[in-house]
Amino acid sequence: MLPASFHAYPSFLVIVAVVAGLIVGSFLNVVIHRLPKMLERQWRAECAELAGTPAPPAERYDLVQPRSACPKCGHRITALENIPLASYFALGGKCSQCKAPISPRYPAVEALAGALAGYIAWRYGLSTAMFGALLFAWAMIALTFIDLDTFFLPDSITLPLIWAGLLFNIGGTFTDLRSAVVGAVAGYLALWTVYWAFKFATGKEGMGYGDFKLLAAIGAWLGWKMLPLTILASSLVGAVIGIGLIAFAKHAREKPIPFGPYLAVAGLIAMFWGEPINRYYLNLF
Fold first, then answer.
1. Residue 80: how many CB atoms within 10 A of its CB?
2. Which of 10, 14, 125, 273 makes a 20 to 30 Å CA pair with 93?
C-alpha cells in the first residue's frame, strides 16, 4: 500500500525522504564525531597488545553509547533536544544548561543530508537507484567531514562502499558490472600512480591511501567512464576552494588541505549529472 502511495504521489516520497535524510543526518553527526575516536582507541589497544602491556580499562564508547552530551558541561542531550534542525533553532544554537554555543555544523550536516535525500527521491523515484544513491550520498557526507576534521578517510566506510557499489551494479543500477569492476581498479590505480610519482619527484606524500580507496569506490558505483570527470571536477573544486581559502581566509600556502572532500563533491556531481556532462564534451569533439 505504501509503495503504491509513493508512486501515485511522488511529492509524498520526497517529503518522507527529506525527513529520513534529516534523521540520518543527525546520526551522521555522531559518526563524524565518534568514528575517528573509536578507531584511535582501537589502535591504542592494539599497540598496547603488541607491546605486551595491558591496555587501560575504558568505558564503552561506540556509535550508540554513551549518550550525546554537551562537551563543555556534560549535560546529556534529551530526546526533545535531539530533533534534527528543530531543536537547534528552538535552543537558539546553545546548550540548554550552560548556554555554550552549539556548532552550526550539526544542523548543516542534517540539512545537507535531508536536501540530498529529497533531490534523490525526486530524481530517481521509488527504485533501487534511489536507495543506492541515498547510501552513496550519505557516505560522501560522512567521509567529507571526517576528512576535514582528521585528514583521514576510514577503511570502515570506504571499503564497504566499494563492495556496495559492485553489488548495486550486479543488475546495472548505475552502470554495468564490467564497467564497475574496471572503475574500482582504475580509480585506485589512478591516484596510486599520482601518489608515487609525486613522492619520487618531491620526496613528500601528496595524498593518503584513503583517497585511492574513495576514488575506487566512486569507480565501483559509477563505472570507469566517470573517472576522468570525477578527477577533473575534484581538481577544479579543490583549486577554487584552495585559492579562496588562501585569498580570503588567510590559509597558509604550506598548510595541507584534504583532498577527500573534493573527491566526494565530484563523485556526487558525476552521479547526478555525469552523463549529460560527458555527452556534452563528446559532442564538442
1. 11
2. 14
